[in-house]
Hints:
By secondary structure, the protein is α/β, with parallel strands linked by helices.
Amino acid sequence: xxxxxxxxxxxxxxxxxxxxxxxxxxxxxxxxxxxxxxxxxxxxxxxxxxxxxxxxxxxxxxxxxxxxxxxxxxxxxxxxxxxxxxxxxxxxxxxxxxxxxxxxxxxxxxxxxxxxxxxxxxxxxxxxxxxxxxxxxxxxxxxxxxxxxxxxxxxxxxxxxxxxxxxxxxxxxxxxxxxxxxxxxxxxxxxxxxxxxxxxxxxxxxxxxxxxxxxxxxxxxxxxxxxxxxxxxxxxxxxxxxxxxxxxxxxxxxxxxxxxxxxxxxxxxxxxxxxxxxxxxxxxxxxxxxxxxxxxxxxxxxxxxxxxxxxxxxxxxxxxxxxxxxxxxxxxxxxxxxxxxxxxxxxxxxxxx
Length: 353
């Protein structure tokens, strides 16, 4: 039931036992060592990968002298008031944080933390961190760039011509002739902007408050939103789920878009009013939509997005958390906390991101 691993200068011996239901990794007892207790409350099938990645990273980066780590995915396997850190996914069985009276931080396994941030049992005095994972970031870049290029090169039309055996030649535009707007200039939005800039696209960025990013034509606030909608040939939504962003794209905002705009939503499903998007597609305001996130997931089979000739549905795959890279971020943040350093990616509980 236990894998025994000692971190620090006293690490000498590893003992292991097996359990079919849950796993606890702990350190051999020592009268001089401190025990850091970590609860993994995420998808059970991913725990072995996180266990391996976390323990390996702790060994590589080190912890305060003589510290040992006890890691478990069994919610009932540790006394709740002894837990120091919770690695968390809202889909887990843990929904009530109130018994964890001495927890030092909750580390989300997601980039978007609206559910965690709005959980009334998670005290605002407890730091909450979101996950900025290199693997997740790279996945998002590849998804966004791939579909921007798909729209830019009009690949959908080429496929239709292929099906109809139509040989219709045209002069494809260059990237410098295309304006790509990005709603949301956070870690992911900024990374996608850099990738698109490197390909020669004119990149516009919008954020709730004023931001600056080299090479990006930045705008903010309601006036800035109108501006970016009017110029964008392709619009990428990478917004968090906050009261201000819910149904941001609806009838009024769609009416301000450049006619024939293509939309890619890889942020949050709540950013779009579905009925108004369908109407904008029907009216020709929106030429195409690629949607990876939805208000209800999985997307119901009767939803009109399925089979729509100008809508591509993807099953929330744009930015998947990868244990092998996420473990390094999580372990380093715990190390920072234990060393008295500022943790990375702490969520502003007021804004929700």
